[in-house]
Specification:
DNA Binding (I), subunit A, mainly alpha, binds zinc ion, two-stranded antiparallel sheet, 84 residues, 3 helices, globular
């Protein structure tokens, strides 16, 4: 990865972090910028674009819980309030 791409990625994280008021996209837990992880809503391996629309900041817990689940399973859990 080039230095330029690294910078873009960091800026995107800051942008999303601010847009979400510094809270996890999934459990609403307040985060610091260091705690926040950048998450693909639809994973890249499932055809999710690397665009801002498809990115959220999430806490490490949620990102780990989400990592092994396909999106429809994850969203089902979210809808039922089973994630937080
Ligand atoms: Zn969370």
């Amino acid at each position: 990865m080039t230095a330029k791409k690294n910078r873009n990625r960091r800026n995107r994280k800051r942008f999303l972090f601010a847009a979400q008021n510094g809270k996890c996209a999934y459990c609403n837990k307040p985060l610091t910028i260091r705690q926040a992880t950048l998450d693909h809503v639809v994973p890249k391996c499932m055809g999710g674009p690397g665009t801002r629309d498809n990115m959220k900041v999430a806490c490490r817990d949620c990102n780990c819980k989400k990592a092994d689940k396909p999106p429809h399973v994850w969203f089902g859990l979210l809808m039922q309030g089973l994630v937080a």
